[in-house]
Specification:
The complex is a heterodimer. By secondary structure, chain A is an all-alpha fold. In chain A, about 75% of the residues lie in helices and about 0% in strands. Chain A has a single domain, classed as Helix Hairpins (Orthogonal Bundle), CATH 1.10.287. Chain A is built from 3 helices and no strands. Chain B is an all-alpha fold. Helices cover about 65% and strands about 0% of the residues of chain B. Chain B is built from 7 helices and no strands. In chain B, helix 2 runs antiparallel to helix 3 and helix 3 packs antiparallel against helix 4. Chain B is extended, with a radius of gyration of 22 Å. The chains are: A mainly alpha, B mainly alpha.
């Protein structure tokens, strides 16, 4: 059962990676990152359920903190996307090249 | 009403078959695929919300009810609203006359897409191989007593073992909120 959960999480991670690598819309890239974070959280919960000492709640604590940090990341990321759209009139990640060295 | 709730809660919830967790997992994976492949951003966002909700239900099915509710509150309630507002605030002009609802790639970005799919496939194969063929694969069994997640213990833990991370996250969330408001604010100088 642990292996099935890890496989589900791996497939979810790959959907997120696919969105991040192939989509050009910055919001879709952020959605992909959220999916990958969800896969990580699912791993934390799965390993907590199968851990030798689930009373310590380590995996659960990690998952809760990771959800909080993911929320902060989404807020800042989407604010950046809105600002980029205001300046470039596009959310295409290929056109945001002003910081390119 | 109260009687109904009591009867609902006293149903034999612990004796449900174990494979039931596959249902929310399947819905979650299908919805995640939908969030990736559609061209209309609003459709992507709605599939993403369904995926997050199913992930929350999956947490509950695995015994981590509190994390499931946190997932529902934070992702389905807040992050999805942020995503939808961001989509509505950034109208893109790439809507074409084509009726194909799925994403398709112009020739110029086809190389990008192929490289992305190849990298993703490699990662997936590597992960699955590590999961199913590692030397310790299959050696893990459920603990004799299924782990439970009393909310009071989470509170105790938050205020004892993880007090410093809790305060750090509080500062981080405040900073992120102020930073997001500053970033999204209209720049008056330009």
């Amino acid at each position: 059962m642990l292996q099935i959960l890890l496989a589900i999480s791996a497939v979810l991670f790959c959907f997120g990676l696919l969105a991040t690598l192939t989509r050009r819309n910055a919001i879709l890239v952020l959605i992909g990152i959220e999916l990958m974070l969800g896969a990580g959280n699912l791993n934390f919960i799965a390993f907590w359920k199968f851990s030798a000492n689930p009373e310590a709640l380590t995996g659960v604590m990690f998952a809760i903190f990771s959800i909080a940090i993911a929320a902060a990341e989404a807020a800042v990321g989407l604010a950046i996307v809105i600002q980029v759209h205001r300046r470039l009139h596009s959310v295409d990640v290929n056109q945001a090249t002003q910081l390119k060295g | 009403m109260h009687d109904l709730l009591q009867r609902f809660l006293s149903l034999p919830w612990d004796q449900l078959p174990q494979w039931l967790f596959l249902i929310p997992a399947g819905i979650m994976l299908l919805a995640a695929a939908g969030a990736v492949v559609f061209r209309n951003l609003i459709h992507c966002a709605l599939w993403l919300v369904l995926s997050f909700a199913a992930l929350g239900v999956l947490y509950m099915a695995l015994g981590a009810e509190f994390v499931g509710f946190v997932q529902l509150l934070v992702y389905v309630g807040a992050v999805s609203m942020l995503v939808i507002f961001a989509i509505l605030l950034t109208p893109s002009d790439e809507v074409s006359a084509s009726n194909n609802p799925l994403v398709h790639f112009k020739l110029s970005s086809a190389v990008n897409a192929v490289i992305g799919v190849a990298v993703t496939g490699l990662v997936l194969v590597g992960l699955l191989a590590a999961i199913f063929f590692s030397p310790r694969a299959g050696g893990v069994t459920l603990p004799a007593v299924a782990p439970t997640l009393p909310v009071a213990k989470i509170g105790e833990n938050l205020l004892s073992h993880t007090l410093l991370p809790l305060q750090a996250v509080a500062v981080l969330l405040t900073a992120a909120m102020i930073g997001a408001a500053l970033l999204a604010k209209e720049d008056k100088r330009s």
